[in-house]
Amino acid sequence: MPLPLSRKIPSLVSLEGMEKQFLDLSKRPSLQWASLRTVKEDVLVRASRNGAFDSRSEEQNLGFMVEVSEDGGFGYAACPGEQPQDLEWALQSARSLARAARTRGAFYFDPKIHRGMGVDIEVGLGFNEPGLDEALVWERLNSISARLKLDPEVIDSEATMITTKTTQRFMDTRGANFLRSQRFFSFQAQATGSRGPVTQTRSLGGFRAQSRQGGDSLLAGVTDSAIDQVREELKELLHAAPCPDGKFDLLLMPDQMMLQIHESIGHPLELDRILGDERNYAGSSFVQLSDFGSLQYGSEVLNVTFDPTIEEEFASYRFDDVGHEAKKEFLIKNGKLLRGLGSLESIARAKVPGVANARSSGWNRPPLDRMANLNIEPGNRTFSELLRSIEDGVLMSSNRSWSIDDYRNKFQFGCEYGRRIRNGKLAEVVRNPGYRGVSKDFWMSLSDVGNQETFQVYGTPNCGKAEPNQMIRVGHASPACVFRNIETFGGQG
Amino acid sequence: MSTENLDQALSKAFKTLNAAEVCEAYYVGESSHYLRFNSGKVRQSGLVRESSLRITLFRNDRDGIQKTSSELQLGAIDQSQVESRVLQEISRLRTLLTSIPVDPFAVLPQRLASTEQILVGRLLEPHEIAEKILSPISGEEFVGISASGQVKRCYWNSMSQRNVFQSDSFLVDYSLISSRKKAVTGSYAGSEWDDDLYLKKISDDRLRRSILEEKVPVRLAPGKYRVFLKSGAISDLLDLLSYGSLSEGAIQRKQTWLRHLKTLERTLSPLVSLSDDLTHGLVPRFSDGGEVAPDRLDLLKEGRLNAALCGKRTEKEFGVQSNGASESETPRSLSLAPGKLKEDDILSQLEDGLYLPALHYLNWSDLQDGRMTGMTRHAAFLVKNGKLHSGIEDLRFDESIFHIWGKGLMAVRDKAEWCPLNQTYVHRSVGGAFCPGMLIEEMNFPL
């Protein structure tokens, strides 16, 4: 049942003419399955440096993709803009490519896997909130970057705010018709300081980790005290010794846990990686399809969820880009691997349980398996209890370096800020903290998981994958966690 | 969108500017066919048209320069619609500038050289591509992507500068996977498809794959190994260096290891000479901000810093003379000078060590110290007594550029190979880098 166009959200729906035309074209009896995905995305980036304007840029991104399936073959075509005359070209092109792929397809695409999810509208958090006055935003950004630079050892500071409004509509010939409107907010505050041979950078939780859904009012959440803390911690780092090399218990704060989850749980559980699609680019996975339901991925306190229900988290949604309804699902429960990160198409190919995560970076790229929100569920330890459990260890927070192999085994991560832990108490600050390990062994060494009070929500707009490449928003929320006997290292810079 | 349509629309729009305003525009156009394949079969096949125009408006008055930009998508719209959209956008940006602070380091566009580079190719039709690429490899574990079509980049400003770059090109970037899950990677790029060249590449790669099939990959202990980094691995290393490391602004803000070369605290091996080299004509000479680069800019000469990439904004802020770099101060086409190591001598000089065709997922582990980490990947071989012995289980390296390009650098291959860029984030990248292989002593592999 098509969504009556009168149910549009006033002034937000573009491409209306094209959508009407698609409904007409889709009635052609020879067309086995086709979809139209229209995307309108407005991005505004404002950056201040050292208390003054640095840059301002906008993108008004508007376009559409048509996908066609014919006798198991599959093709797509995408165009910028909103010209109905392009739709006929796109439909014919996608159909021609689908026909060419019929005898060479890696997978027989059966449109029945798209179950005809029906009609719906989703309006995300803060979507209808009015934008802040331009001059006020600049006043605040300049004030933040100036505040970061108050210490004479700070040589450079920046405050960057990225706001995005997206409206996406998906229609297919099986009656799917949904509209999703969302608003996203990312903030980066960062300062670099220098003292003698030592130069350090400290930010508010790592590169663009302050990413969530909502309107401009989230800027009010960037408080002066949080900015002062960034500057003070930078000063501490400039006076700190390097993180020691050795084996220590490791307390990871949520703003580093997000990266740890992302690289060593998220990517290895993507079903398209396990199916081999990414072997030439992003890589494969140490996880096998036969591992679902049996592999002990980590210790028994590890509980990992695909959770699209935390409204403010960066990649929450009710339906993925092919209309699959998104629900909270345990991927790993009590350490055991249960479910993969794959949507309808991958579930059909892999024959293992999946989630609603077919997503695309925009109108010009086809949907595929992405992470969305991937979280660690809170445990029962207070932060004090986590600390007390460590006799000789290191706390690390805010990611600054990441690298992992193509099967997602051997990783090495670096953080901005570290503190030694001795006899259950926080001790001196250490600079250039880093650690390395192997994914499954590392998760088996997870001994203690922080409670809800330690649980924090982060995200990033910069998860890259696929050929052609796609950069996409993901969310990660986690409590603080303790890992035992981990290899750590420092550095001289 | 034709260049002529945009010429006319922008010419009309620029005439509406007032005396305090300067305007520039940057166009990205593309008509690409993407074929993604897995296990020698079509995974996804699609056509993508791109057509975006970024307009930047500057206002220069007694208080200083203000600047803001906006990017529009242009579909199949006619001439009058293009003109009205451009005018409408300039008018909107004009209003916005009233509430935007002065940019203390903005530099107004100038009238630099106008240029035109049109590279006409002979490409396969989209419906032919799957047959041409996949037929010769039927039944094999063959995975990767083909990207083919026309890309266009244009720049205009209201000072009458006009630059056009248009290129027909293709890239097949692939991995041939062995039964031991190790891959031989390859790429075939150009502007004229040649069946024989493609088949020859595949045939050579099958031969390399057969070596991977012979023996179980060896698990090596962490430690220091002598390595030969083939051109692909050097290209991976240059990719990491391209993001911020070679920038004069980053030196001034102490955000790159390169500053240690500027202060002469540290040096690299005299075997290292690196330039941003546009003489091959495969990338636009102009940047998205209209800067026109010299044909060749020497960055490192025999291990010493000759020049970092310096844009006009850095010049204004720090007083260092600019050298045609873009505002982001990223290189356009790096070229590393070849040395004297001959192909036939590589394995004998490596003797016992690792032969690495590619590196994976590089990142700085200590940016200030130039220390980087990453993984071996694909057809990495253990070499014993100057002969390829077997594949290896992947190792993680963590080593400083001051070792890799410093004391550890033993020899540089006598031929630099063209390594095309395979990035397709948002748009297809153009260009690549010329990279010779390098022989390195005692490279550190801690995991």
What do these coordinates show?
The complex is a heterodimer of chains A (493) and B (447). Chain A has 493 residues and is of the alpha+beta class. Chain A folds into two domains: 234 residues, PmbA/TldD superfamily (PmbA/TldD fold, 2-Layer Sandwich), CATH 3.30.2290; 249 residues, no CATH class. Chain A is 19% helix and 39% strand. Chain A contains nine helices and 24 strands. In chain A, strands 1, 2, 3, 4, 5, 6, 7 and 8 form an eight-stranded mixed beta sheet that branches. In chain A, strands 10-17-18-20-24 form a five-stranded mixed barrel. A four-stranded antiparallel beta sheet of chain A has the order 13-12-11-16, covered by helices on one side. In chain A, helix 1 crosses helix 2. With 447 residues, chain B is α+β, with helices and mostly antiparallel strands. Chain B is 22% helix and 38% strand. In chain B, the strands form five sheets. In chain B, strands 1, 2, 3, 4, 5, 6 and 7 form a seven-stranded mixed beta sheet that branches. In chain B, a hairpin with a 2-residue loop joins strand 1 and strand 2. In chain B, helix 1 crosses helix 2. Chains A and B meet through strand 2, strand 3, helix 2, helix 3 and strand 7 of A and strand 1, strand 2, strand 3, helix 3 and strand 5 of B. Strand 3 of chain A pairs parallel with strand 2 of chain B.
